[in-house]
Design brief:
Number of helices: 2
Largest sheet: 5 strands, mixed
Helix content: 10-25%
Strand order of the largest sheet: 1-2-3-4-8
Radius of gyration: 16 Å
Distance between the termini: 23 Å
Order of helices and strands: EHEEEEEEHE
CATH architecture: 3-Layer(aba) Sandwich
Oligomer: single chain
Number of strands: 8
Number of domains: 1
């Protein structure tokens, strides 16, 4: 079972229903050597992504979770999602773009530590583990 680590400021952001459902799946289906952080700020700008998942051999995965229903999504571009809500049509950042921006911010912060960098080869000077990002739509 994976371990979920929450932000110590529990009042800041309670999990949405979709985030809770996804966290339950991570705990149920990932092995014991996975660490999963929920809503952890990084850097001076205090950037957040919903989940950061770490496996010692597989690397880092940054995920943004949205409780959107496919029926409510009117259009998606690489930058914007147009969503029909109870309060009318709303525009949001594309969650994949959001996850990518947070992931690159986190990775650049980690790369400041020389112990976390590749020392030889094609990826010399880059993060010593693979990393990726994605969006999760649990509905």
């Amino acid at each position: 079972m994976a371990t979920i680590i929450r932000n110590s400021d529990q009042k800041r952001k309670p999990m949405t229903r979709g985030e809770r459902r996804f966290a339950d799946r991570l705990e149920d289906f990932l092995e014991d050597d996975y660490l999963c952080w929920f809503d952890i700020p990084v850097g001076e700008k205090r950037r957040y992504t919903d989940f950061v998942i770490l496996h010692p051999a597989r690397g880092l995965l940054f995920l943004e979770v949205k409780d959107w229903s496919l029926d409510n999504i009117r259009s998606i571009t690489p930058d914007i999602v147009e969503l029909q809500t109870n309060n009318g049509l709303k525009h949001f950042s594309n969650p994949l773009l959001q996850a990518r921006q947070c992931a690159t911010h986190y990775v650049r912060r980690i790369e400041r530590d020389n112990l976390m960098l590749q020392t030889t080869g094609k990826y010399q000077g880059k993060l010593c583990c693979p990393w990726g990002y994605g969006a999760v739509l649990p509905k």
